[in-house]
């Protein structure tokens, strides 16, 4: 019996309508369309010509949507082998020259992204969507994620967006990054942390 592919379309921009394949639900959790639309409605034109980092990328649907809407360079980070294969196939449908894939542990690979941004004297939007901590082996994932955010140097950060389980309590300030707003979508919440040096 042939397994039906799970897909999602790019909503807007130069790659609008491109069909992306999603990894199996057993390996990754795809962001809901309503979450994705709300996010891009929030940042709108700010994303144009910006760098965008999608941590825990899965299919890459968030980063590729950002690319479609005008972001200049996308960094993808993914550990799961099956998800990586799907991610690379999806990137091939858009603009591979504007994308960089870092395979392996995101908590380690984030340092490579930071070095690249520092070398180019650039900043970026960081979209962080870790697996929910209710998954087996992920009990400390949010502690590690908060530590990752706290470690990001301010010259490299424009905004940090965390997609997380709604029951999670997050401090209003993480190492100087200030919580601007949180928006709840059932079990999922988007929390936006800003770098105070930028005017949002």
Provide a concise account of the structure shown.
The chain has 200 residues and is of the alpha/beta class. It has helices at 33-43, 61-68, 81-92, 106-120, 141-151, and strands at residues 6-9, 19-22, 51-55, 73-78, 99-103, 124-128, 157-165, 173-174, 177-185, 188-194.
Number of domains: 1
Count of helical stretches: 5
Q: Order of strands across the biggest sheet?
A: 5-4-3-6-7-10-9-8
Shape: globular
* Straight-line N-to-C gap: 51 Å
Series of secondary-structure elements, N-terminal to C-terminal: EEHEHEHEHEHEEEE
Largest sheet: 8 strands, mixed
Q: Which topology does CATH recognise? A: Rossmann fold
Radius of gyration: 16 Å
Give the tally of β-strands: 10
Helical fraction: 25-40%
CATH class categorisation = Alpha Beta
Strand content: 25-35%
Structural class: alpha/beta
Low-confidence stretches: none
> Superfamily at the CATH H level?
Vaccinia Virus protein VP39
Please describe the structure with a list of short key phrases separated by commas or semicolons.
single chain, Rossmann fold, 200 residues, two-stranded antiparallel sheet, globular, 10 strands, eight-stranded mixed sheet, alpha/beta
Write the layout of secondary structure elements.
Blueprint lengths: L5 E4 L9 E4 L10 H11 L7 E5 L5 H8 L4 E6 L2 H12 L6 E5 L2 H15 L3 E5 L12 H11 L5 E9 L7 E2 L2 E9 L2 E7 L6
Parallel strand pairs: 3-4, 3-6, 4-5, 6-7
Antiparallel strand pairs: 1-2, 7-10, 8-9, 9-10
């Amino acid at each position: 019996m042939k397994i039906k592919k799970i897909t999602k379309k790019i909503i807007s921009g130069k790659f609008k309508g491109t069909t992306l394949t999603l990894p199996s639900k057993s390996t990754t959790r795809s962001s809901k369309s309503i979450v994705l639309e709300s996010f891009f409605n929030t940042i709108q034109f700010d994303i144009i010509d910006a760098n965008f980092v999608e941590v825990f990328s899965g299919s890459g649907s968030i980063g590729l949507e950002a690319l479609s809407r005008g972001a200049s360079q996308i960094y993808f980070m993914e550990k799961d082998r099956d998800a990586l294969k799907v991610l690379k196939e999806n990137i091939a449908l858009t603009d591979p020259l504007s994308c960089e894939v870092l395979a392996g542990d995101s908590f380690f690979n984030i340092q490579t992204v930071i070095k690249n941004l520092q070398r180019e004297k650039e900043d970026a939007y960081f979209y962080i969507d870790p697996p929910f901590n209710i998954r087996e082996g992920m009990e400390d994932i949010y502690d590690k994620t908060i530590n990752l955010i706290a470690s990001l140097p301010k010259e490299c950060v424009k905004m940090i967006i965390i997609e997380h389980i709604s029951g999670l309590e997050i401090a209003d300030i993480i190492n100087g990054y200030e919580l601007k707003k949180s928006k709840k979508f059932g079990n999922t919440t988007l929390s936006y942390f800003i770098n105070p040096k930028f005017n949002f």
